[in-house]
Write a structure and sequence with these properties.
Number of strands: 10
Radius of gyration: 15 Å
Structural class: mainly beta
Oligomer: single chain
Low-confidence stretches: none
Number of helices: 2
CATH superfamily: VC0467-like
Shape: globular
Largest sheet: 10 strands, mixed
Strand content: 35-45%
Helix content: 10-25%
CATH architecture: 3-Layer(aba) Sandwich
Length: 145
């Protein structure tokens, strides 16, 4: 099986007792250097407004995106009409874009939690690493809904 951007993966019991236990991933990019994506189902214990630099914001949910660059926020959204500069992943999903626009739409409530997710960190794999993890049975492809 060849992994592409936009695919969703689910961890298997082989990843029990790791950061990936009971997680689902959205693969955001696959290229000659490897792959990266985000864990989409692990709520972060704090909301956006509980982070010092965003205390002026509304309480918006955060998610644990992965173990890489956990000092930064990343986001996916489904509103390219409201947020410029996002990179199309697949289907209706976009990665990033103008973060100030995203914050403005969060604070004015013109974007909803089902249209944008904020993540602390992301996941990354070196060339062929994710493919090998799939072949060993650590991840399985989720069927499209």
């Amino acid at each position: 099986m060849h992994i592409t951007a936009g695919q969703h993966l689910k961890s298997t019991p082989l990843l029990a007792d790791t950061i990936f236990e009971n997680t689902t991933l959205l693969i955001c990019e696959v290229n000659e250097n490897g792959a990266w994506g985000i864990i989409t189902n692990k709520p972060f214990p704090r909301k956006l407004n509980e982070l010092v630099e965003f205390q002026h914001c509304l309480p918006f949910p955060l998610y644990e995106g992965g173990p890489v660059e956990q000092e930064k926020l990343f986001f996916i959204h489904q509103r390219p009409d409201l947020i410029e500069g996002g990179k199309h992943i697949a289907n209706q999903f976009y990665w990033g874009g103008d973060f100030k626009q995203a914050l403005n739409h969060i604070n004015t409530q013109t974007i909803q939690v089902d249209q944008l997710q904020l993540f602390v960190g992301y996941c990354g794999w070196d060339k062929n690493q994710l493919q090998l993890e799939i072949e060993e049975g650590s991840w399985e492809l989720m069927s499209r809904k």
